[in-house]
Amino acid sequence: MTDTSAAPAAVPGLPAGRDVLGHPRQLWMLFMTEFWERFAFYGMRWALTLYIVQQFFAGDQAGQGDASRTYGAYLALVYATAIFGGYVADRMIGYQRSILLGAAITVAGLFAITVPSFDVFLLGLALVIVGNGLFKPNISTMVGKLYGPEDQRRDRGFTIFYMGINAGALVAPLITGWLASEITDTPMVQNYKVVFFTTAIGMIISFFWFWFGRKQLGEIGRPPADKKPGTQMAIVLIGAAVAVPIVYLLLSRVGAGPLQWVLSGLFVVLGIMVLAEALKEGKVQRDKAIAMLLLFIFNILFWCFFEQAGSSFNFLAQNIVNRDIGGWEFPVGWFQSVNPAGIVLLAPVITVIWAMLASMKAEPSVPRKFGLGLMGNALGFGVLMYALSNLVTTGTGPDGAVIQQIPMWPLVLCYVLQTLGELCLSPIGLSMVTKLAPLKYVGLAMGGWFLSTAIGNNLSGIFAGHVSGETGMTVASALEGFTSSFWLLLVAGAFLFLIAPLIQKLMHGVK
Fold it and tell me: Is residue 143 domain-resident?
């Protein structure tokens, strides 16, 4: 239903237009751009670790640890480069051009990873990383720019946008998993390449959706007025050309352990930059920046354990979960659609709950929503702990080997509980950054949010490698790893709940 009343421009330069379903019409264009970009990202994400083991370790399960660490480092760098993408958009070429350039580079990378050479595969991942860094933080920042500083619709707008992210993430594994099994009868290592080609097409659609839709944005996201667009674009292109081999070297030569030190150093530098700018704006902005950085730290812990989906949870599903349904085997990749399906179904419910609580002046503060997110994540691991302790059955595989398995439902329920935790934390975090960051560094601060996610993702790969050990995941190694995850998340969530009033005080009334 379209609102017939004209909406005033939320920021200077945004053309007046009509709201659609109570939000600026530009939100829905950004929604679909992000949908297709996330289709590309999640469509290939479920297959990466499985492809690495099949293609480069000849199916040997001992390759799980290396695959997990490569996956974690890849995800970490995907989010870490957002800090540079945010700076490039803020200071050089604007958000619109950053998004288009990032999409084009990502397409090249998705085609490159289909080449059956590990060096070319890593080069393709490097291209995807650099492209995503230019794309991801800037489209999120543009959502915030559609709303005025006091517009109460902002959080709900980000939740709607977050549904676009997860709608793409829901559809992608279902379609790419089906294509991989239907288009060719060749071994799975070839089928994974069909997956990568399909996601490249999704990214091409994202590029053109934004290309034609950006006229709606008016001056939002245009290059800074004091910069020469052509010169700045040339500099950024050269920078991207230099960045790709650097990222390749980080993936191929440095590895997850040393990369953690690099990412942590970047986080410290970013924190200093944000605080320095905040100090120029006064005590209130300084306190807001401190609150934001504290929540970044808890965000690291959340994603360290949440992002087991593409690594340890993938190997759990492949080797330990009984996926037989009446003689039909449930595809491993389809588990990856449980989380986004939960987001799409539950996000409107959570939005209504927040709105109802707000009307009663009882809505939890941002720090307490973060605490709920950590505890929801913990409960997911609690379900797996129970299953690995009490629901294991022992049988014999086709080759006569003894196999231990758990039912499907604990892994599905784990994803659902983690999803509830994610809805309490992630979309709220995106909105929080746009409200707490120093005005001149909103894009950089959004990059900092993704950098904290990057650190968590790299730790997730290291952790998943520990769970798999030297010979591949077992029931015992999974139980040990997931038990520690449960307790760390539960204690951190409870602690954050206790100190929430202190952090809220630093936020100076920001809801």
Answer: yes
In this prediction, the residues of the chain whose per-residue pLDDT falls under 70 are 1-17, 20-21, 149-150, 152, 181-190, 397-400
Q: Read off φ and ψ for residue 324, nearest 5 degrees.
A: -75, 125
In a domain, 11, yes or no: no
Asked if 39 and 172 count as a contact pair (C-beta separation under 8 A), the reply is: yes
φ/ψ bin of 262: left (φ > 0), alpha (ψ from -120 to 50), beta (otherwise): alpha
**H or E segment and range at residue 6:** strand 2-7
Angle 452-454-456 from CA coordinates, rounded to 5°: 75
Tens digits of residue pLDDT in 330-369: 888 889 899 989 888 888 888 889 889 888 888 888 899 9
Q: What is the DSSP string of 349-405?
A: HHHHHHHHHHHTT-PPPHHHHHHHHHHHHHHHHHHHHHHHHH--EEEE-TTS-EEEE
The CA-based angle 159-151-358, given to 5 degrees, is: 65
Long-range Cβ contact pairs of 275-283 (< 8 A, separation 24 or more): 277/438, 277/440, 277/441, 278/438, 280/438, 281/438, 281/439
In angstroms, how far is the first alpha carbon of the chain from the final one? 29
Residue 14 domain flag: no
DSSP tag of 321? B
Does residue 9 belong to any structural domain of this protein?
no
Helix boundaries (H) for 89-187: 94-112, 118-144, 154-182
Domain that holds residue 149: 19-506
Q: What is the pLDDT of residues 272-325, one digit of tens each?
A: 998 888 888 888 888 988 999 999 999 999 999 999 988 999 899 988 999 889
275: domain CATH number is 1.20.1250.20
* Pairwise CA distance, residues 77 & 132, whole Å: 9
**Total of domains in the chain:** 1
Q: Count the Cβ atoms, other than its own, within 10 Å of residue 413.
A: 18
Give the 3-state secondary structure of residue 271: helix
Closest CA to 447 of 86, 134, 34, 138: 86
